[in-house]
Here is the input.
Amino acid sequence: MGAAFIPRAPQRLASPFDLDDAATYRRWRDWKLAHAPASAEALVVDVADPRALSHAERDALLQRIAQCNTALYRSAVVAEDKELPRALGAQLGLRRLDANWLADDDGISQIRVSAASDGRGGFIPYTDRPIRWHTDGYYHPAERRIRGMVLHCVRPARGGGVNGLLDHELAYIALREASPEHVHALMQPDAMTIPARADDDGVARAAQSGPVFSVDPHDGQLHMRYTARTRSIEWKADAATRAAVACLECVLGGAVPGLLHAQLQAGMGLVGHNVLHDRSAFEDDPAQPRLLYRARFLDRVALAAPASWR
Here is the structure.
């Protein structure tokens, strides 16, 4: 009889997010830093109509998203067309909308100042106050991760409303370069807890614990859930987590490579993955109030090929 067949365990692909694989990390890190944008303008693609991209326009957006996880587009389309974010997203593989409770029935959120009693009034995105650094959906469970997003500007504010942008992978690099222990601490399943949210009917959302950094088991991509809020958040009460959070705050308050600022004008928008972003306070024009459409997706952008660092 022949020797018994012993099946081999599937070989694990090298990952730059494996803290035990320094060589792969260094190769990826060098590629990421070489492609870090020097300004927001480096991410801009001029498009005739975001609802109907040409092949060249789509390829240019995909190239920037592959390298920087987000892209900016600029167009002359200034109509109030709520279908635009959905149409743009679909051309890039973003189809599964996150129908969150503050979105309209079609899953698209209208980001404008609101004092209404529809749930939006008082929530920071619907005010003219600044919004601190965060990724979208940081309060969602893992099965509702926000992987992709479109933010389209119909009308800008009269003044202010500038967005800070930082590729979450560059934030990861900054922390790992400072100390791999920071990354390890923020990958713990109880690193960050968002307490339950109650409404008049009781608990509207259960408490949600999870890591800041995690690696998607299906595609090996890095996901980040984070908010710089100091209220309605509980960090794991140990020295390692406190040190990691303090380091991340320093990164977001400093001059890390790829930290950008962009002021969206009418017809402009951002599209890509769920990168870190913030927003400065703004002054509205009562006659032409600020209006943006936001679409959040459970999908990642459908990139044509693996990143060229491999």
